[in-house]
Structure prediction request, 342 residues.
Amino acid sequence: MTMGRRIAVPFFFYTIVMVFLLALTGCADVAQSAPVHIAAQPTATSAPASPVATPQATAQANDPPSGAAARAALRYKLLGPDGWTWMSSLPNSRIVAFYGNPLSSVMGPLGQYGDSDLIAKLREQAQTYADLDPSHPVVPALDYVTPIAQPVPMGDGSWIYRMPTASIEHYINLANDNHALFFFDMQIGHSTLQKEVNLLWQYVQRPGVSLTLDPEFDMPPGGVPSQTFGRMTAAEINWVIDRLSALVQQQQLPPKTLIIHQFLAQMLPDWQKIHRRPGVNIVTCVDGFGSPGEKIDDYRMFDKEQLIQYPGMKLFYKLDKPVMTPKSVLALDPSPLMVMYQ
Prediction:
């Protein structure tokens, strides 16, 4: 059954990974050419101690410079300020996200609370899932809508508004400083996915930043956002997946997560052709508000019968009647690995 349309308005796993990767670099220098994409230098607490004349220290001193540099770079990636991002990957973790835009209280939590309350409420919501399923460490996330589809063409004919740099930087920092992932939730209107991704690419290269695609607002010719339901083709989505995969592998970043919204079959007309690539986790987020029965019907279709990789569910605090409890959400088959709240 199709649900109501959405409102369109303006640490144990970490330790295992660390040990494995450090051991790997001791066996081969495959990572020796990997650049360290961290702007800040290591703090005094992470600086190596003074050399000691031990066999281990002597062996390290005799390492080729490239091998020593690779080891140091990897240690800093895992133990530095972005080390937490390495334990935030699916399917070992579960993402719990707050959706919205700071300019609109109607769109979701991001526009309803100040910074401290937003993070506190996000952590509180995430903790309920962690308590119910301790086997999946919960990673909080902010799903920040930009570009935002508009009911008018705008100056460039794109029918979208792009959020300013200062706001983007603020919310990326707010999320990542609190060990929360940050997602750009993209409503592309009459622009192109390639253009809008390129405009945000400088941010996507950061370890804690990923993307969300919203086919509802990928407009066909003549379509008006919020009056016409859009669609997104596998070719468009595969271009994003390939680019993210290349980024992760070339810069040796933690895996990226690509969330794709869906509540109508027509929104992903050739979903079977969407491909999976190394370093990219794909989540189908069942969207749309409605009763639990309606949401479960759509979940069964899009996250079980037509599942691309990992299942996800979106809930509406004010529009779902009633809102499904975390316990009932986790009881879905398969259990969602991403839960988003609007």
Observations:
- The beta strands are 94-100, 138-145, 148-149, 160-161, 181-186, 209-213, 256-262, 280-286, 310-315, 338-341.
- Residues 90-341 form a domain with the TIM Barrel fold (CATH 3.20.20).
